[in-house]
């Protein structure tokens, strides 16, 4: 019951604060600039009063330590790249090549791998509902990712590129970033390949710019204001970024940030 309440609270807090911001606006707040200022005020209110995403981080920690699955074990011995059970700083060095899986994995994929190999959970039972819907309760998997990422807050990003598989993964990511597909014939670069772009009220980072790329990557997972849930980087992008600048950033990670 307490865990479900923690998952529901972020959305409830969001609705209350949106109402507060809307109620404090004036007649002149109909312009795009005024609307953006209202959103900025709302984000500041969340930051000052406690980030709703922090509640999900707490839930993720509990889930990380909880014995689950057919094998009835926790994820506390999961190797995220720095050794079995080491969570602190691990997210900052992902994605990376894992010898046991013989592939490059990001945090989301590695956690799923550990759920399968350690706990005996069938990925097919998880993947259909791995991402929560807008305004819904965040999934257990999203909570665990948020917790793992939070354990690297304040640590500089340093995804390795020494293994041949890591270099090959980067090359594939670069091609995918510019590849156009889907019903709208969009690529990642369509929205994130130039400066000063936005979709509705959302400013879009230019991921071909080192500063923007570093700022964007080091702040996900983040609490998504418009959806009332914490979103992971894999949920937002689903594919690797074509920008190499995020892999070695002087900026410390900050999770979860408010978007």
UniProtKB/TrEMBL annotation:
Keywords: Electron transport, Heme, Iron, Metal-binding, Periplasm, Signal, Transferase, Transport
Enzyme Commission number, as recorded: 2.8.5.2
Reactions this protein catalyses: L-cysteinyl-[SoxY protein] + thiosulfate + 2 Fe(III)-[cytochrome c] = S-sulfosulfanyl-L-cysteinyl-[SoxY protein] + 2 Fe(II)-[cytochrome c] + 2 H(+); S-sulfanyl-L-cysteinyl-[SoxY protein] + thiosulfate + 2 Fe(III)-[cytochrome c] = S-(2-sulfodisulfanyl)-L-cysteinyl-[SoxY protein] + 2 Fe(II)-[cytochrome c] + 2 H(+)
Residues making up the signal peptide according to the UniProt record: 1-29
Species this protein is from: Advenella kashmirensis (strain DSM 17095 / LMG 22695 / WT001)
Superkingdom per UniProt: Bacteria
SUPFAM superfamilies: Cytochrome c (SSF46626)
Cell compartments where the protein resides: Periplasm
Any one of the GO BP annotations: sulfur oxidation
Main enzyme class: transferase
Keyword Electron transport: yes
Domain Cytochrome c stretches: 60-157
Name of the protein: L-cysteine S-thiosulfotransferase subunit SoxA
Family: Belongs to the SoxA family.
Keyword Transcription: no
GO molecular function per UniProt: electron transfer activity; heme binding; metal ion binding; oxidoreductase activity, acting on a sulfur group of donors, cytochrome as acceptor; transferase activity
A Gene Ontology cellular-component term: cytochrome complex
Quaternary context: Heterodimer of SoxA and SoxX.
